[in-house]
Amino acid sequence: MKRLLKNGTLVSGKDYTKADLLIEDGRIAAVGTGLSCEGALCTDVEGKLVFPGFIDAHTHFDLEVSDTVTADDFTSGTEAAIAGGTTAVIDFATQNRGESLHQALENWHRKADGKASCDYGFHMAISDWNERTAKEMEELFQTGVTSFKLYMTYDNMAVNDGELYEVLKEAGRLGALVGVHCENGLLIKELVKEQKAAGRLGPMAHPLSRPASVEEEAIQRLAVTAGLAGAPVMVVHLSTKSGYEQIAAARKRGQTVYVETCPQYLLMDDSLYSQQGFEGAKYVISPPLRKREDQECLWKALQNNEIQTVCTDHCSFTLAQKAAGRADFTRIPNGMPGVEDRAALLYTYGVMKKRISLPQMCRLLSENQARLYGMYPRKGCIQPGSDADLVVWDPEYRGTISVKQQHYRTDYAPFEGTEVAGRPFQVYLRGELAAQNGQVLRKLLGEYVKRGPGRL
Ligand SMILES: [Zn+2]
């Protein structure tokens, strides 16, 4: 089927221009002015912005963690994604200790295949490094899993410094990118003990047990290790100014360090933990919410193109699941939803507030993610031959985020009551109109994306 989108303002990573767009067989067929096409379904999108489909390279759907499983699986998670303009996610396939990477990958295909309403790929989270794992990394890389994830905290997943070095070295050799969760797990354990000994057992103790310095130290250690291994590295969900300063120092030494942050670290602060009763549990995420000055640093880094991607770390739990930690904050499952709200938040509080430009929004949400994770130019741009993954953005929309409208399976919205300007009018997935005005029109169109080597 052919479609023609007339008179839209097409946004790229460089600029924006008014043009028409012809879609044929799921791909972009032509971009230009005054396009006409016999037999094409024509939509006038005058006054709307047209972005390449947004990509969220940090989601956890259907993840078993903290003796429970995330509220959103691939069914609900990808419906929320597409409703909010995200046409592809890269989820973390996660190796349990004792499993091979191949088994972990099979597990994630079983969770996702046939259930997704947006396209999806997988990073591989390595938690069991042994003599077979390097070979497996290479095999996975050949089959389209070209990025890996390591944790410097969480007992069941953390790698030690030697393992960190070995994985980075192997990834560097392959041309794979490693994303790292940077928090010093051993220090956190000690600080948790101190909070408990002081009788602090509520959500407020969560940020106290994971201060900025445990992120800063882990980033510094990662940067030194990546420097020794001669490999580029990605710091995921950066939350602190002091951590950012370590990244800036490593870059000054000539290292390639990429950075991802998330809307919650840009827009929420740690005062949310000191609310009445158990309210703060909604925001128990790791790393925790920080201070105003951290937010300012992150916005400035976005503005100066020093942060490459904005993802969500969508990892959702219901209030009943969060209640497992009523008497002990360490038992509150860490994480919250976000995959549906990201673009509206970045547009409202980034573009509308003149902190970032439209091309920057395009790079942060789409182009840089496609490039870094090996999907460009199939995704991440509007060019002849690219997948027709498109977000037709309505800049006139005004609304409020509410649990009542969201597609998540959670019974709360972290950004409840937050005003947003703009939202997707239409979302196309490989040429099919998949969502409109926040409603999912066509489900289960998602396909697995094999990725190549990434570079920016
Ligand atoms: Zn995560």
What are the bound molecules? zinc ion
Mean pLDDT: 97
Number of strands: 19
Q: How would you sum up the major sheet?
A: 9 strands, mixed
If you compute it from the alpha carbons, what radius of gyration comes out, rounded to the nearest whole angstrom? 21 Å
Question: Which word captures the global form?
Answer: globular
Secondary-structure-derived class = alpha/beta
Task: Give the low-confidence spans.
Answer: none
**N-to-C span:** 33 Å
The portion of residues forming beta strands comes to: 15-25%
Percent helix: 25-40%
Separate helix tally = 13
Q: Any descriptors?
A:
9-stranded mixed β-sheet, globular, 13 helices, binds zinc ion, about 450 residues, alpha/beta, 19 strands
